[in-house]
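Give me the fold.
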Amino acid sequence: ALACEDVSLASIAADVDTPAFVYSGAAIDAAYRSIDEALSFAPHLIAYAVKANGNLSVLARLASQGCGADIVSVGEMQRALKAGFPPERIIYSGVGKRREEIIAAAQAGIRALHVENIQELDVIESVARELGRPIAIGLRVNPDVDAKTHPYIATGLRESKFGLAIPVAKSLVPSILENPHLRLEAVACHIGSQLSSPRPLREAIEILGNFANHCIEQGATLQAIDVGGGWPMHYGQEVDAYPPAASFGDAIREGLEASGVLRSEIEIITEPGRALVGDAGILLTRVLYTKMQGERRFVIVDAAMTELIRPALYGAYHAIMPVAEPAASAELVTVDVVGPVCESGDFVAKDRPLPQVEQGDLLAIRGAGAYGREMQSMYNARPLPPEVLVDGSRSRVVRQRSGPEALWQGEILA
């Protein structure tokens, strides 16, 4: 039977019921070490993309290993600070920072705000003047490189909303360097998530490195080059589809060497999300019913698009495994695995070969440690599932299942 480290998934289901997210602490640690080793050629900071999974216990585990945090909202900053990330290891990205958020981030003393808009730069400058102290910034450029990934998670093309076109960014450098209210800390880019090849990353990093050289020639003393994220994880359908972390580290090194900015005084920052936590988590679910509808065979489970929206949103693949070991003679049956939500788009998998499963069986949906609980909703007035963190033979509930009061929290009956 399947287990998370030394704890059986069946025992977790008995303790907390289903659906439930289960995370392996050892898997998170191993993923962090893998990226840390891939960047060992230079001083570096791994700034975890909090949006992938903001559970406080997951954040605290990464913070304790020297990890930084990449945030895209003040709410994420507050979670990161609560979990123990020092503000000087927090980077604030994102195209739509409110003035109030910029003030809060500056007052918290985070390392840098990454600028993606000329108007945003004006707001940051006015906040710095108001606070009476300079604000450290990074210029996020758009290198116009095709990451060859899903269009919803591609962020480095010219038509993307992210980053500054390089000619625009170059035009801003002189005035930034002359402005006593701004301190140019870094240059940055991010071409997309779940990269299937390191080649686009190397291309983008060389472009970014050339922009860094331009800033240095203009008189900037850069502290860091932020190469973004994109480190992939395996979701289970393609064993050899994604190269190892070391090859992405090599791509970063080669891009920086080609542009001449691989220097001991400049720190490399990277922003992995799913690569650190995705494969560390499963969504544990139970079969409610099986059903034949014409020629289609349905397996109806108690997890839904409310817990894991990626299949419906992206057409994403997640491996599914029975928790109880199937008999050696068990034949594979092609099924649609669907949830209880009142939408035809509520599915976990379509046309998936699985061993025969029956009512009451437990299934483990793999690769649910990232963008699972974080992207969930309470659609159909469904409660939010619990989260369980496993360390060896010890399992702890690190977020409880929501109760009925959460369904109307903050509402006023008029």
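The domain at 25-272 is CATH 3.20.20.10 (TIM Barrel).
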